Amino acid sequence: MTKTIATVPTEHGWKYVQQLCKHWSHKLEVDLGDQKGTVKFDNAIAVMTCDEAGLTVTIEAESEDLLERFKGVVSSHLDRFAFREAPLPFDWKPA
């Protein structure tokens, strides 16, 4: 498994996490808790947490190729919900 993390400065992180989890809950296994959302894909897991600094997204995937794919999937979906401040600045780093 390979892993990456990005912290995105936004005041609306929790709102975006809730919207994204609700959106994906129709097709995927989603867990939405206290300032945290987890989405389980077939070959990856995305965990999104929120605090005063913004939104932190961690993605763990079975391969580098899948990790790159899911970075795009998660960031593009979050940008859709954050259309007023998109594109959000995702600075992905190995975790």
**Element order: H for helix, E for strand:** EHEEEEHE
How much β-strand is present in the residues? 35-45%
Helix count, DSSP H or I runs of 4 or more residues:
2
- Structural class from helices and strands? alpha+beta
Distance between the termini: 11 Å
Number of domains as seen in the coordinates: 1
Which range best describes the helical content: under 10%, 10-25%, 25-40%, 40-55%, 55-70% or over 70%? 25-40%
Q: Taking Cα atoms only, what radius of gyration do you get, to the nearest Å? A: 12 Å
Regarding CATH, which class? Answer: Alpha Beta
Based on Cα principal axes, name the global outline. Answer: globular
| Main pleated sheet | 6 strands, antiparallel
* Structure summary, number of beta strands: 6
The name of the CATH architecture is 2-Layer Sandwich
- The CATH superfamily is identified as Alpha-D-phosphohexomutase, C-terminal domain
Q: Record the strand order, biggest sheet.
A: 2-3-4-5-1-6
What name does the CATH topology carry? TATA-Binding Protein
Q: Could you list the spans in which at least 5 consecutive residues all have pLDDT below 50?
A: none
Overall pLDDT metric: 97
